[in-house]
Amino acid sequence: MGSRLRGNDEWAAGQVAPRRVRLLSMTSATAATATPFRVATPADRAQWSSTEPATRTAMDTTIPLRCRCGTVKGELDARRAYTRATCYCKDCRAYARFLGVPGVLDAAGGTDVVPAAPAAVRLTAGTEHVTCMSLSPKGILRWYAACCRTPLGNTPRDPKLPYVGLVTACFDAPPQTVDAAFGPRDRIVLNTQSATAPVRATPLGFLAGGLRILAGILRAKLRRERATSFFDAAGRPLREPDVISRETRTALERAG
């Protein structure tokens, strides 16, 4: 969307460009120091049996969604999430400045996002307060709760592309639950060159995350899923997007 897509916008459009990455090869010294094979003991088996159910439970968890004031509520099927990433692009930061609420950006100006299949998201209350904006006439749709300006997620303008990037600021779950379901924060980071403080790049994570998103989008397309959470049956967005002016966008970018 738009003349140029960045960060999770690239993922939203399904246009993840290959990145140059260096693959680390195993050296003979590493192989020599590898842990030798041994037969599992009863203590090992007991430990495995005690940890496996917790892992399965975490992955089967339905993550509740909630705006800051509690008017808008929903849920996410964690099994349909594509990955998790922190985006440091100027667009995401401008959007957070537009909302003007705390807890969206980290110390380096990044937004914690969980890309997922739109069919995995269900809004259960307060849908009349759900609205959206866009940073440009052709930009992605950025949904939020108008009652308290809590960010919800980003979607393409075309609902036929099964993607929603949920902002974890609307997750009504403890951090450890979110980490167990989607992996730790900052495992994948995007657009580090736009961060307001030094951030370690994750080129391999970026590539792996992009491939997972493409695979998830393909599966959703094969299932002929429709983005029902933020679009009606005819494919129209639930709300007409508020497209901010170029001057407003420039001011927001300079503020962050």
Q: What does this entry show, briefly?
A:
The protein is α+β, with helices and mostly antiparallel strands. The chain has helices at 8-12, 28-32, 42-59, 90-99, 175-182, 203-222, 246-255, and strands spanning 62-66, 73-77, 85-87, 111-116, 121-125, 130-134, 141-145, 150-155, 164-167, 189-190, 242-243.
* Proportion of beta-strand residues: 15-25%
Let me know the number of strands. Answer: 11
Q: What would you say the CATH architecture is?
A: Beta Complex
Question: Which fold name corresponds to the CATH topology?
Answer: Metal Binding Protein, Guanine Nucleotide Exchange Factor, Chain A
Q: Give me the side-by-side strand order of the main sheet.
A: 10-3-4-9-8-7-6-11
Overall pLDDT level = 82
- What Rg is obtained from the alpha carbons, in whole angstroms? 20 Å
- General shape: globular
Low-confidence stretches: 1-42, 44-59
Main CATH class: Mainly Beta
How would you characterize the overall build of this protein?
By secondary structure, the protein is α+β, with helices and mostly antiparallel strands. It has one domain (57-255): Beta Complex (Metal Binding Protein, Guanine Nucleotide Exchange Factor, Chain A), CATH 2.170.150. It is 30% helix and 19% strand. The chain contains seven helices and eleven strands. The protein has an eight-stranded mixed beta sheet with strand order 10-3-4-9-8-7-6-11. Strands 1-2-5 form a three-stranded antiparallel beta sheet, with no helix packed on it. Helix 4 packs across helix 7 (246-255). The model is unreliable at 1-42 and 44-59 (pLDDT under 50).
